[in-house]
Amino acid sequence: MTPDFAPDSAAALPVWAVWKGDPLADQAGPWPKASGFSAKPGEICLLPDASGGLAGAFLGLGDRAVASRHRFLMAHAAALPQGIWRPVLPQGLDPDESALGLLLGQYRFARYKGAAHDGGTQFLCPEGADAARIRAQAAGEFLTRDLINTPANDMGPDALEAAARALAQEVGATIAVTTGPDLLDANLPMIHAVGRAAEQAPRLIDLRLGDGGPRLTVVGKGVCFDTGGLDLKPAASMALMKKDMGGAATALGLLRMLALTGAADRMRIRVLLPVVENSVSASSFRPGDVLTSRKGLTVEVNNTDAEGRLILADALALGAEEQPDLMISLATLTGAARVALGPDLPPFYCDDDATAGALSRAAMAVRDPLWRMPLWDGYESQIEPPIADLDNAPSGGMAGSVTAALFLRRFAHGAGRYVHMDIYGWQPVLAPGRPKGGVGQGARAILAALPEILPAAAS
Q1: Residues 197, 107 share a domain
Q2: What does the pLDDT look like over 228-247, one tens digit per residue?
Q3: What distance in Å separates the CA atoms of residue 290 and residue 451, rounded to the nearest whole number?
Q4: Out of 64, 108, 165, 233, which one is annotated catalytic?
Q5: Residue 131 and residue 416: Cα distance in Å, rounded?
Q6: What is the mean pLDDT of residues 347-356?
Q7: By C-alpha distance, which of 326, 287, 323 is closest to 305?
Q8: Domain limit, last residue, from 106, 129, 152
Q9: Which position among 20, 133, 309, 410 bears the catalytic label?
Q10: Staple 12 to which of 48, 84, 100, 304, CB 3.0 to 4.6 Å?
Q11: 69 is catalytic
Q12: Could you tell me which residue, 395 or 439, shows the higher pLDDT?
């Protein structure tokens, strides 16, 4: 489905968003109290008119004092009856966040259920919100979610390439794809090594949009399914591995946002997606193999389940050769990041304090949380094995997200500034506007921070 607001309509019914204890509910007469309405988050009270029809509704927001714990409370409005609704927001509730919540609350992944969402409940854009920008963000997020939610039998490397081609056509981007043995000729050997065991060939997808202004390069990890390779994952760890292409999905969602907001008119955007399936066959790469990367650095493979950083390394090295002003990698990379910060708060790594500060502020402002972690030089020795330049899986298990970021940084040299985001790409429990399943992380924060990070792109 395409997220959108309803056109203005005189038939739209008001839905008042109400904090717990808000006197507004008392002003509506005895009905809300008699109905037991207490403005709990997501609680709805339908208001009758004099003839018994529907005059409007109250939507509970919960306790204002703990509102900072929650995001997109207006997404609960999706439970209202079919019709067109006009949101009325209380003072202090951000119109843009509320508008985005209304659209995100309408997301459904119904590809395999046989019944698509009918779109019968629609909303006018809240007063004061930037409808076009919110619509663009939701469109990008819906794309990311659909890609992650689709299982690997229908979202392998071929299908992910098809999705990238469809987006390129939609937004007017160019696309080039290097596949299979051609990766070796193009000096992308680690992408080939990781993906060569799968039935569908590994590939590097290269999208470009815009022809003027600063250069932004985004690299998204596209492991369409991760068995762990010969270091096979246990069943419990393999269950969610359709989401291991969440970095690529988020990168495509970000590209859609940049195009629809017009940001692509002011910068040169390049999206690089190394796309593979980490499978098991006679041609699988092995523990103990030493691979030579595009950059010329050798990598000892001490765990075939640490494959994401291998494919990202070649793509980062390729991207850095153009010396972009900013290069960002997005990847569902380490379990260590989840242990440290949980599923909702992805860590990011950046050597440049000004860039990191802009990202942190933007992330909090648009409720797309990120947390800066250190690129700690003292751990560099952990990724330097005796027989090769780098180790893809240092022993010991400590600081796993940090050492992964240090590994990637070796391949990003040449970019003006580099940011790595270790995202989860999955919503483990139902939350307002975020059903259980695939979710984008970091894209909206990047979109909001770019005018400060790349000011020439904002003019």
Answers
A1: no
A2: 999 999 999 999 999 999 99
A3: 42
A4: 233
A5: 33
A6: 98
A7: 287
A8: 129
A9: 309
A10: 84
A11: no
A12: 439
Q: Retrieve residue 273's tokens.
A: 């997606």
In the three-class reduction of DSSP (H, G, I as helix; E, B as strand; rest coil), residue 329 is classed as strand
Residues 6+ apart with CB under 8 A from 319: 217, 219, 270, 272, 327, 412, 415
Q: Are 138 and 31 in a shared domain?
A: no
Q: Which backbone phi and psi does 255 adopt, to 5 degrees?
A: -60, -40
Handedness of CA 98, 102, 103, 105 (dihedral sign): positive
Q: How far apart are CA 57 and CA 406, in angstroms?
A: 53
Q: Which domain holds residue 190?
A: 134-458
CATH number at residue 410: 3.40.630.10
Give the pLDDT band of residue 118 (cuts 50, 70, 90): low
Q: Catalytic site residue 233?
A: yes
Ranges of beta strands (E only) in 305-346 are 326-331
Same domain for 275 and 209: yes
The strand ranges marked E within 341-402 are 347-350, 371-373, 390-391
Residues 6+ apart with CB under 8 A from 112: none
Instruction: Assess if residue 248 is contained within a domain.
Output: yes
* Same domain, yes or no: 170 and 63: no
- Amino acid type, 169: Q
Residues 183 and 43 in one domain: no
Read off the CATH number of the domain in which 46 is found. 3.40.220.10
Cα 25 from Cα 379, distance rounded (Å): 57
pLDDT in tens, 371-398: 999 999 999 999 999 999 999 999 888 9
DSSP 3-state assignment of 23? coil
What average pLDDT does this structure show over 17-23? Answer: 90
Binning the chain into helix, strand and coil, the percentages to the nearest 5 are 35, 20, 40
The encoded tokens of residue 74 equal 């207006």
User: Is the distance from CB of 108 to CB of 1 less than 8 angstroms?
Assistant: yes
* Residue in the block written with tokens 């700690």: 376
Copy the structure tokens of residue 1. 């489905």
Tokens of 269: 């955007």
